[in-house]
From TrEMBL:
<keyword id="KW-0274">FAD</keyword>
<dbReference type="Pfam" id="PF00743">
    <property type="entry name" value="FMO-like"/>
</dbReference>
<protein>
    <recommendedName>
        <fullName>Baeyer-Villiger monooxygenase</fullName>
    </recommendedName>
</protein>
<dbReference type="GO" id="GO:0050660">
    <property type="term" value="F:flavin adenine dinucleotide binding"/>
</dbReference>
<keyword id="KW-0285">Flavoprotein</keyword>
<dbReference type="GO" id="GO:0050661">
    <property type="term" value="F:NADP binding"/>
</dbReference>
<keyword id="KW-0560">Oxidoreductase</keyword>
<comment type="similarity">
    <text>Belongs to the FAD-binding monooxygenase family.</text>
</comment>
<dbReference type="GO" id="GO:0004499">
    <property type="term" value="F:N,N-dimethylaniline monooxygenase activity"/>
</dbReference>
<keyword id="KW-0521">NADP</keyword>
<dbReference type="InterPro" id="IPR020946">
    <property type="entry name" value="Flavin_mOase-like"/>
</dbReference>
<comment type="function">
    <text>Catalyzes a Baeyer-Villiger oxidation reaction, i.e. the insertion of an oxygen atom into a carbon-carbon bond adjacent to a carbonyl, which converts ketones to esters or lactones using NADPH and/or NADH as an electron donor. Thus, can convert bicyclo[3.2.0]hept-2-en-6-one into the oxidative lactone products 2-oxabicyclo[3.3.0]oct-6-en-3-one and 3-oxabicyclo[3.3.0]oct-6-en-2-one. Is also able to catalyze the sulfoxidation of methyl phenyl sulfide (thioanisole).</text>
</comment>
<dbReference type="InterPro" id="IPR051209">
    <property type="entry name" value="FAD-bind_Monooxygenase_sf"/>
</dbReference>
<keyword id="KW-0503">Monooxygenase</keyword>
<dbReference type="InterPro" id="IPR036188">
    <property type="entry name" value="FAD/NAD-bd_sf"/>
</dbReference>
Amino acid sequence: MAEREHVRVAVIGSGFGGLGAAVRLRREGVTDFVVLERAGSVGGTWRDNSYPGCACDVPSHLYSFSFAPHPDWPRAFSGQEHIRAYLEHVTDVFGLRPHLRFDAEVLRMTWNGERLCWDIETAGGDLSADLVVSATGPLSDPKIPDIPGLDTFPGKVFHSARWDHDYDLSGKRVAMVGTGASAIQIVPAVQPRVERLTLFQRTPPWVMPRMDRAISGAERALHRALPFTTRLRRGLLWGIRELQVQAFTKRPNELGMIESLAKRNMARAVKDPALRAKLTPDYRIGCKRILLSSEYYPALARPNVDVVASGLGEIRGSTLVAADGSEAEADAIVFGTGFRVTDMPIAERVVGAEGRTLAEVWKGGMEALRGASAAGFPNWVSIIGPNTGLGNSSMILMIESQLNYLADYLRQLDVLGGRVALDARPGAVSDWNRRVQERMKRTVWNTGGCTSWYLDANGRNTTIWPGTTAEFRRATRRVDLGEYRVVRPAAGGGGARETAAEVSA
């Protein structure tokens, strides 16, 4: 039998998190690593989401790596094609292609306590790694609700993240299910060309204008000639969002003024009072993600659009029946119903030191030390792990903080020397999670009166970080060995042991 390939680090996923980890590994002098990607190209969610109108709701200069500034963003808010091109550019500039393994979906990875490594089974072959960086991201696996009769629908059905570009919606009766960030971009993009568009809305979102514009050639020339201006622009965008955090995390009642602006935004485009009533949320703004669009409300006011203020309850052939009993005929159904965020499928494929999957350990709710390490899963580091999401700023800021933690994690392993692993102490994980959840109690995400995808099946917010990005960066600057068990091979190869002298350190 051929010997299994072994690498120092295996990175799972090639979106922003995975590519960022790969760049950081190379900058730390680590070249013995692979990036395992289930698809055939890099890009993560910006590869998978190619639906009409797909764009980012974070300004371009903030939604990019600080170590890879891009002076030529064409718009204030970039479209999907520009962000995906940026990630391809990063891949080339930092020499990551030799490390990429495409069509290598991870089927299972198991901690090997004798060899102190992860045994990884992929669709492209098996390997092992001293350390795994899980960068699969929370917005990677679509979620489609279990609708009675869906299998009887004779038309086309797909999720927004799996858009069927071979199917022409022109002249069709289209049902859009959901009113999240994807739906408010899809609706105005397809409304002009469909015969009829029926929007099934369980809960109306708060929508603010999207202040998008083309970035002028003069601005881009300035950024190319004087790189510090790009950094200054990024810093200003970051600072504005940091100042907003207090209202979300400590003083939700101050968000009332923002609600008034959102209502005026709606009133400008929607003159029908009955339609405005359907579209007006009954929860505090910010409890669900605040959406940005200047085209969504005008599209809903068009004569070929119907808004059903009720979720889709049943399907009878080509007839879609809402929970309130209203009916609509459709040739195609597009689900904009989000992703498996609090029950990520990758957790079902990770088997830890005690023989349990990460999904089993997280059955009561996801939790990880500083968003990175789960107890019982040595040398496993998550990027965009539990409680690292944001409600008002750029996730790239959080990713870069976690890359700092990853870099120090590797340094600590080097200092300890030899075959060694770090396993987060259960008490440290619990203490960190308790502090996070205590802070969460005052936030708009927990007190705003809504049910959102930030909450898991138990009603706990295991998704959002309840503070500023600067706070998180400070919290993840260094690895505290006191929060970990230091594990080495047992004498005689009979399993792992914890080294007392190192534990006391």
